[in-house]
Amino acid sequence: MSLSGVVESIRRGNWALWRRQVVGILAIEAKKNLIGRRAMFVYLLAFAPVFLLALRLIVPVPKQAIDSIGGVSVMYAIIFRTFVLRLAVFFGCVGIFTRLIRGDMLERILHYYLLSPVRREVLITGKYLAGVLSTGLIFGVSTVLSYILLQAPAGWVAFEEFVIKGPGFGHLVAYVGLVVLACICYGAVFLLIGLFFRNPIIPAAVILGWEYINFLLPPLLKKFSVIYYLESLCPVPIPQGSITILAEPAPAWLAIPGLLLVSGLILLIAGLKVRHMEISYAEE
Amino acid sequence: METPDRTIVFENVSKFYGDVLGVNRVSLKIPPGITGLVGPNGSGKTTLMNLMTGLLRPTRGQIRIFGLSPYDPERLFTHVGYCTQYDSFPRGMTGFQFLRAFLRVHGFSGRQAHEMAWRALERVKLVDAARRRVGGYSKGMRQRIKLAQALCHEPDVLVLDEPLNGLDPMARAEVIALFREFSSEGRFVIVSSHILHEVDMISDQVILLSGGYVVAEGDISEVRSELPEHPIQVLIRCDRPSVLASRLVEMDHVVEVKIQDDHQGLLIRTRDAERFYKRLNQAVLETESRIEMVTPADEDVLSVYQYLIGTEGSS
Fold it and tell me: For a tag site, which of A118, A217, A223, B111 has the least CB within 10 Å?
């Protein structure tokens, strides 16, 4: 279908029906993502920092350990950038989004969707939104919990001073927003990978490598990664290593719409791919 | 939704899996009623059904169901329900949840989906098991819940891939009655099976497949009559078979007469059934035989399949 055909069909589309269908798909998929077997791995990744920070309440860390890296805010920023964004959300999205279609193929249940009167683009949208909702919820909750747990040892007065009256709440909102944005963008990427590759591990490893060496890349190449834009939006800067190649962070007005636009384009490609999809379970 | 063209049409459809032939040059026009797709495993029955429902795309040719392309799922599957051979279900769902969840995906409201799910469960007699997880169902129950899922939105075309597999005789009879009820309402029921007598029993017309080709289609007696090289067999149960045999063997179109082992009947092979039936009455009167039954002995799918393919069809 040409682009003008897509535009025309959207213009004439039955939006009320599509909305009901997306809700129907979301109900099935969100349940699978949140309480199915595939969710265990994501919960482990998401709540690992929460668990470690909860341990910190029992076994207090010497005050100097925090002071030496620039305080609690910087400590959280480091955890967030190096573990939450680069590993936990990344692999969480690999686990959820690559299986949205491929997992159903492996379990031989995709045909129930394909034999329903649902546009395949609507199917992809429903599954994708279920993925974003699930990962956003899991990582959003873990981000809030880990942020609170990191501040907790300082006591209620300091917590109130920094988080409620000070800049802490703004930081927390920004971190949650970043996690959701990461899920939106990585989710779209891994949904597409799940459609094109039977074994998504290799392409996921290549993308992980590219995202991980981002700090070593020249400024122009940095811009061809998701992590560059996400890190540009982080509310608290962290000390850069001596081998880091510095680049001007992307402004929010560019980073946020840019990531959303790219995610939308990737979804469009996924919709076109799934439109021509055949069921061949025997080959899986 | 308007459906001006109530036919299912295959136009020169071929499907290749790489170098392997699925089906080749299939041209069909399927009328309403129960249509049996017959052939051994690997003959192309499932491929044909998957092409019809858009799960596969043809390498060549086109398919139209009520004028709709199989690649327009949004409109097609309001008319079509497909019960596939795949024996797998979303994890953790009860029978009722399974039906209701996918009716919501169709776009029905919660209340509509609820009512339609129960109606479908009643039709397949699974109400008692509705609150149990599908994963714990027996093979026959799984077959019935799949059937319920295919028909819960009241489609005009019901496509069923080996639907009687795993059903006990009682359930088979109930499911067959359901197919007949569907077809009596002017709907299309397309059933595949590799068990020929099963298809023979339920079909209004058959499509015989072998090696990816359609070898015959239509009403089975019409197909049989188009095989003149195979003399038609007629079974006669009577009290004086040897006397009647001596009279019948004089007819020039009768090529063989066999007296049955119990000496209570004859098996005739004739090249002209019409002339045979006309002259049979006279022969009976002349020999003063008492006839208990006269019936075609090879006007069934199994015989026709054997004549056409040279195998039993069943695998």
Answer: B111
